[in-house]
Structures are given as C-alpha cells and as structure tokens.
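Human: Here is a favour to ask of a fellow structure person. Comparing notes only helps if you start from a blank page. Give me a protein, with the fold worked out from its sequence. Please set it down just below, with no commentary around it:

Assistant:
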Amino acid sequence: MKTLYTLGFLISSFLFISAQSQKLNLYGRISDSVSDSAIYNANIRINDSNVGTSSDKNGKFSLAINAFPLKICISHISYEEQSFILYEHPGEGLDIHLNPSFKLIREVIISSEKVKNLTKDNLFAVNDFEIFGQHLLMLVYDYNFSKEKNPWLVLINSNGDTICKTFTGKDGSFFKDCTGQIHLLTQNEAWQIFISNNSITLAHPSEISAFTKAMEPCIASIGSNYFLKKYSHGQQVLNYIIASTVDSSYENMRIIADNAGLKMLVSRNRFFAMGANPPTDADLRFEEMCFTGPVFAPLYKLGKNILIFNFVDSKLEFYSEQGIHQKDIPINFHKNPCWKEEIISDERCEKVYSLFIRDGISTLREINLENGKLMQAIKIPKFKFIEKLKVNDNKLFFLYRKTSSEELKAIYVMSLE
C-alpha cells in the first residue's frame, strides 16, 4: 500500500484525527443507561482540543489519541452530558452509558395526515436542512426578526416542535461530511456545527476552498477506513480509494470507466474543423460539459457494507467495510426516461430508494437489495418540483414552496410505512 499524500491533511485538519502523529486508538460504545440500546450521533470531544467524532448507528466510536491525561466530553441532544478524565489508555473499549434527559419535548407519532408541513406554525423560510439523529437541523430566515437579525440555526423534532435555536448571521448551506458531522458552508468559511445540551454552536472555522478540496472527495467512513473518490480522463474514469487512518495508507478499491465517453474525448477533430488553432483549455472544458457528463456511479454506506451503484455497467456492487468485493446484482431501472440521477438512502433502516420525476411530480421506489428490482411506487401527491429529498427512519422529508401563494419555503414530512 502507498502513503496517501492528501489523507493526512484531510484527516488532521477536518476530521480531527491526526494520521501523522497518531499514537493510540481510543474506542468504545455509547448506550442508553436505561435500555442499553446504542446511541447514534453522540458527540465525543477531547476537552480543549479540536479532536472529536460522533458515534455510529451501533453506538461505536473511535478516536486517535496522542497523549494522556485527557478529558473526554460526551453529549447528545436527548441525553445528559457526561465527562471524565482518562489518565492512561484503558487497554480496551470504553463502555459509556448516558442518562436520558427528560427536559426535552416528548416525541409523538406523526398525525394521520399523509403529508405534513413541519414549519407551518412559524414564520420560517427554510433555506436548507439536514438530518441530525432523529431530529432536523434547519437554516432559516425568521420573519419575526429584521434582516440584520437573520438567519438562524433551528433544531426541531420529527413532529415540528422546536428544541433549540441560535442566531448565526451567516447565510449558506449545510454539508454533512463522511463521518456524519454537519458543517455550515458560507461564501468564505466552513464552520463545524456542535449540538448538545439544547444549544447549537459554530466552531473550528476553515477557509472554504481548502475545506471543500479536502472534504468533498471523502464519501463515507466505517471505523478507521475512509472511502474517497477521484475523477480523471475528463471525468470519464472514476476511481474509488479506501484509506486507513491507522497507518495513513491507501489502495484502489474500484475503477469505473465510461468507454463511450473516453472515445468521444479521444477525437478533437471538431475543434480543428472550426479553425487552424488547437483547442484551448476552455474549449476542452466546454466539450466535457456538452458532449460527456461525469461517470455516475455513486457510493453509499449501508450498515457495515459499501454499495456502488454502477450505472455504467448496470449493476449494483457490494463491498465489505475493508473494501473487499462481495457480490454484484443487475439493475436496469436507470433506463427509465423519468429516472433522475439520484439515490436516496435511509441509513437508519438500511434502505435505498430511486427517484423518478414526471411532469414535476416525484415518485420514490425502494430498491430490493437482493435482486435489484424496484418495489412499490411511492408518489408524493400534489407537490410539484419539491427539493432536497431525504429519508430517515421510514420518513421522507423535503422542501417545498407553493408557487401560487406567498407561502414560505417549508419542510414537509411524509411517512413511507
């Protein structure tokens, strides 16, 4: 395996794990003190440092530690914060139990309405939203305040009740990185968002171009393995790489090439036919945009497996958390003219959906992971041109604003059960 040059920068600067100076691996599991069930998306931080991570759906976490003693702080929006000091490595995994917080608004079952506006009781215009555990984090303009006192970060539960909010004054959009951390991207900066003890905090600002250059290639992570993507040959070749934070090494996992697109890029005669001068870089970029699109073969993490939807070769590929190929199943739903190049995953329920749009109406169809066939169609009725579809725990969330009224852009929820 070769040393990945950019991995150290990627991890040490933005994932808060230093691949170059890593000494010990601190790991463990976080669970509910009452039910012993795993706690997903708990924040684990080393006090007075930039080192931190989140627990996965099994409650497990891993941190690279350089020295002891250190103070560990664990927090979750639904639990009481806990902190303790470690004077030396425990020698085994930590077993951490958090006590439920009873100060939060009680979760209730969504009403019998098929589609519900979660923000209709607020003067919110929702610019963006992201899934945070069982809650939703929103970036909103609150019309109860002046332009100078906007926008706000607001956390709501799945019934639309506000849990906490904070004024940011920073417009932008959300980005969830390959470890599940949520960032606010503004025009010039990237801020990591921390949510704990009914409060929302922005921290660790980074220069936006350096952040996107480092973070966008990282697609998913399982334990100490990170899965990155790299395009080449006019974006007609897509290379997936598995990188390890244990020894800062990497290896190619899968290379997917669009042979038809490569053949189109070989010939530059169309430019010479228009004049004696050879094509410029701008000409070649124009050619890539107009004649060939990038290879579309997205990678998703589902439980402890990695899925690659290889639409070039019409197959769904399964890989282990170590990047070892397991099996392929054929797929052909992407040949439907109404199919949109988008796969929507429900990581909590380990389901994936394909999206179809016809006359502005969106339809979801779950993909059977045993045979690659599509299952029952789920149409989103009476809502045309909805935006940012996300599925979590068998619930579909999306943004929508009625074009025929003055209604503000809102978040809607629809049960998929």
In short: The helical segments are 5-15, 208-215, 259-266, 269-272, 281-291. DSSP finds five helices and 32 strands in the chain. The mean pLDDT is 83. The first strand starts at residue 2 and ends at 3.
